[in-house]
Design a protein that fits this description.
6-stranded antiparallel β-sheet; 12 strands; alpha+beta; 223 residues; 33% helix
């Protein structure tokens, strides 16, 4: 009896080396599976968040520009002064105009100067808004001015213009999609008229191959 009790005591002292190694391998495998599942979940969440933000920008920017263009103005009369010409022009990577639309509140918000400024190197689109109350408020943006909003990761921002003459020419030929030759790359400040349409080319950086999207936006309209 004493010998049997001794053998049982020896067996109950602990695990064998093989059992310990097997346990460690199992724990490691479970830990690895949990870590991989967590990483996949985080990647999916981050990808979904990025795609959602990108989709919002692709929707919001053209919509904002369309509303601004519908309320674009070329002249304005100020109290105690004759009417003033309000420049509508573009130069390399900059687009400036005046509008009666503001994204806050009702469409009729008073005169606002809008400047879109694109930095190709940093891939940032800056949008400046300057509310005009009196004629003296009309001024150029400076390095001291802060943009109202910024969009990072912009790899393409381009505006082209379609005149009323070219618009009628294309409609006369029943060409719904306006030819590239119809559009102007620049709109001179001395031009007293507004373009009939503007074409926006816009693209954001993406892990996949980014595709430039185009919008045709009418200038002028009812508020």
């Amino acid at each position: 009896m004493d010998g049997q009790n001794l053998n049982m005591t020896v067996r109950s002292r602990g695990f064998t080396l093989i059992e310990v190694l097997v346990s460690m391998v199992l724990v490691s495998m479970v830990t690895l599976i949990i870590a991989l599942a967590l990483r996949i979940s985080l990647n999916a969440w981050e990808r979904g968040e990025d795609e959602g933000e990108t989709a919002q920008i692709y929707t919001a920017l053209p919509s904002l520009l369309e509303k601004q263009m519908q309320a674009a103005v070329r002249t304005m009369s100020f109290e105690g002064a004759s009417h003033s010409d309000l420049p509508f022009y573009s130069e390399q990577n900059m687009f400036s105009f005046f509008t009666l639309f503001s994204p806050m509140g009702t469409p009729w918000q008073g005169l606002v100067k809008i400047v879109y400024k694109y930095d190709e190197i940093d891939q940032v689109l800056e949008i400046y808004e300057n509310r005009i109350n009196v004629q003296e408020d009309i001024k150029e943006i400076t390095s001291d001015d802060s943009p109202a909003s910024e969009i990072a990761g912009v790899i393409r921002f381009s505006i082209r213009f379609l005149t009323e003459t070219e618009l009628k020419k294309d409609f006369n030929t029943r060409d719904f999609y306006f030819s590239d030759s119809s559009f102007q790359e620049k709109w001179e400040e001395r031009n007293k008229d507004l373009p009939a349409y503007i074409e926006l080319d816009f693209a954001l950086a993406d892990k996949k191959e980014a595709q430039v999207r185009k919008w045709l936006i009418k200038v002028g309209g009812r508020i």
